[in-house]
Design brief:
Elements: H1 2-16, H2 18-30, H3 39-52, H4 54-77, H5 83-105
Helix pairs in contact: 1-2, 1-5, 2-3, 4-5
């Protein structure tokens, strides 16, 4: 199910922030040895996503408590490098909440909208 969520959000990001999306990925590909060179592009993309991508806005609105718990866990476990051990349950809860929001809309990723038939029709 996570691929479903990831694909829907990526489709929304590409549709609503195409310039920022492409510029960030172009920068990353040109600076793969030092991605920190793309921080400004990452910030541009994040701002556009926050302001313009409906699926992300909906998830932020409906799943904000889950996100806060997950972010807090990451901060609390960063120094001890125990994020995987302690925070995965919060990430799972956040993803489940986000997936539920997408399913309520009845949306499907674009590649699932096409039915492939073996009978040539």
């Amino acid at each position: 199910m996570s691929n479903f969520l990831d694909q829907l959000i990526m489709e929304d990001v590409a549709a609503h922030c195409p310039t920022q999306f492409m510029e960030y990925h172009k920068c990353i590909s040109q600076n793969h040895e030092d991605p920190s060179q793309c921080t400004y592009r990452q910030k541009d993309l994040a701002k556009c996503i926050q302001d313009n991508v409906p699926s992300v806005q909906r998830v932020m609105n409906k799943c904000g408590d889950h996100m806060k718990r997950y972010e807090s866990c990451i901060r609390d476990n960063m120094e001890t490098r125990t994020i995987n051990e302690n925070c995965l349950k919060y990430m799972k809860e956040l993803r489940e909440c986000a997936e539920n929001q997408m399913e309520k809309d009845g949306r499907r990723p674009i590649n699932e909208m096409f039915v492939y038939r073996d009978d040539g029709k």
